[in-house]
Fold this protein.
Amino acid sequence: KAMLTANIRQNLQVCVQIASKYHEQLTTDSLIELFESFKSYEGLFYFLGSIVNFSQEQDVHFKYIQAAALMGQFKEVVRVARESDYYDPEKTRDFLMEQKFPDQLPLMIVCDRYDFVDKMTRYLYQH
């Protein structure tokens, strides 16, 4: 926390590397909270990107989708939406709808996979 407080730009990469290496000891939830407290979606994206493929925690997958979307990394959002079975589909659908991204492919994938097509159709028609 002290490193991020001192100079987030300069220390972010080192903090992400430390978080990735020691996330089991420091707990993933506390590290997510740390990056969120600094509103560092970049840090969250890189940290969670290093563990998302090995994690079965819903929050890790959702927060990664969220951080990737907010960073404009839509290929990653599409990949995780398509490949992961561990995110909360309703929470993810709602997030993607709230953000009103120009690329709706991730929303379409989530809605198609989890049978939310009616809700998605209504949303797309209204927006």
Q: What stands out?
A: The chain has a mean pLDDT of 93.
